[in-house]
Please model this.
Amino acid sequence: MNSQTLLEPYRKDRMGRVKIAILDTGIDRTHPQIEAQWNKRIKGVKSWFDDEGGDRDSCGHGTHGASLLMRVAPEANIYVARIVKGSNSVLNPDNVAGAIDHAADQWGVDIITMSFGFPRRYESIEKAIDRASNKNIVMFAAACNSGANRKIAFPASSSSRVICINSADGRGARSRYNPPPLSSSHNFSVLGEAVSSVWPVRLGEGAEKRQWGTSTSTPIAAAIAALVLEFANAKIPKLKIIHRARLKTLEGMREIFSYMSEQKDGYNFIVPWKLLEVDVGRDMVASRISDVLYQFFGAEDDPH
Model:
């Protein structure tokens, strides 16, 4: 990928790795590809179930998502919160709130990705999201997979604190299961159809599996955000400290995502190499980031 080529020269320094927490069904440590990254890339695992650890995954959903994070953002550190046992299990909102707090307070992550949704809001989750947002943690959540039959799920519907992610095919065309785009929303979409990633072998469906859905798009979006933060952490002279700080806010990342987007079918399809383009060089990429943030935040962020 063009974006990876741009970042490669700065990857000798491992101290500035971006931290991503994934809240999902856990991760299957027995998979050879996952075991190979244990303690190297997977830095923390916690389960919200006393009888089973976070290094398990009974349905594959979390393993698939965590592997996508590692593939798209190959230098990010991954933290896994197992908040639900499987796709047919009831998701406890208190588990979600606790996992958000743990990711923020104990792991100190930069990004949280949430590939699930509720039909209504929960105060405990809203308060946890507020606390994480106040620590400048960028959060992503899946829109929903019910098309026009349902509205955007919670917490993706918390647009002032969470970036909502829809799905698209490889060319940016909208997925049929997306909720309708909203005039008041950024309507971001990311590849979410037939995406291959690691799958628990013991489930009998092979070592990899293709998945569809906004829950597949969401970790990819989070990993793209990690690439942007990784570039900022490289301390490019053209990118001022204030701009690096702004990138770690929802507003800053949202503006960068808007810049990287192409309008397609009413959605803003994310094209990361529109910003992280190796051919233009690091200084031009830094200037683009500065210009985008200056236009949104104003004179306080004047890069000149």
Observations:
- The chain has nine helices and eleven strands.
- The chain has a mean pLDDT of 91.
- Residues 118 and 154 are 5 Å apart (CA to CA).
- The two ends are 31 Å apart (CA to CA).
